[in-house]
Structures are given as structure tokens and as C-alpha cells.
Design a protein that fits this description.
This protein is an all-beta fold. It has strands at residues 6-7, 10-12, 17-29, 37-44, 47-50, 66-77, 82-90, 97-108.
Length: 110
């Protein structure tokens, strides 16, 4: 993001167009049930645009374990639309997830 459009974890489209969005998300958990895991998700204007199951992370095996997932999508945005990356719980563990790292970038491709 050469134009400085990522501020406080949000990429804001400076002009209308098609953008390549990439994100890397890490998370850990404080409680584990069998099959618990997390997945990366991309949100446009606060609404989930790309389902969390698009980038499933491996299941957690024990409390405190950290998992990492990346996601890469192409989105059509209007000027001033914003994009965020986040995590979503898989198999009901979302209330025990902790973010440890999020990286986000957006590039105008058309």
C-alpha cells in the first residue's frame, strides 16, 4: 500500500475499481474443544464478503496454540469503501480466540 491507505487495520479504496486484497492472520485460543479452529475472513464495509471457510486453518490441539492463515481475494470497491481482515471461529470457539497478528494490503488492479 504505497498510498498510505491502510490505517488502523483498514484498507480504504482511494478510487473505484478492482482490487487485489491480501491478508495474513494469526490467532491463539484460551480453550479448546475437539475440532476447534479458526479461519481468515475478509470484510468489506464491516460485512463479511468472503466466507470464513474460504481459508480454513488447522484445528487447535491445545490451549495457547497459535495458528496462522492467509487469504487473497479480488474485490470490486467504490471510492471510500473499506476492507478489513479478521478471524472467525470454526466449531464454536470464537469467544475464546485472541488475535496475535494481522497484516493487510490492497492493490488497484483495474
Amino acid at each position: 500500500d504505497v498510498g498510505g491507505n491502510v490505517v488502523n487495520g483498514k484498507f480504504t479504496a482511494p478510487v473505484a475499481g478492482t482490487y487485489h486484497i491480501t491478508a495474513q492472520v494469526s490467532a491463539s485460543t484460551t480453550f479448546v474443544n475437539a475440532g476447534d479452529g479458526v479461519s481468515a475472513a475478509v470484510f468489506v464495509n464491516g460485512t463479511s464478503k468472503y466466507p470464513a471457510d474460504a481459508a480454513y486453518m488447522a484445528s487447535f490441539r491445545h490451549s495457547g496454540q497459535e495458528a496462522n492463515s492467509g487469504i487473497s481475494v479480488v474485490v470490486t470497491l467504490a471510492a471510500s469503501d473499506y476492507v478489513q481482515a479478521g478471524i472467525s471461529g470454526v466449531h464454536g470457539n470464537s469467544d475464546t480466540l485472541m488475535y496475535t497478528y494481522i497484516s493487510l494490503a490492497g492493490h488497484l488492479i483495474g
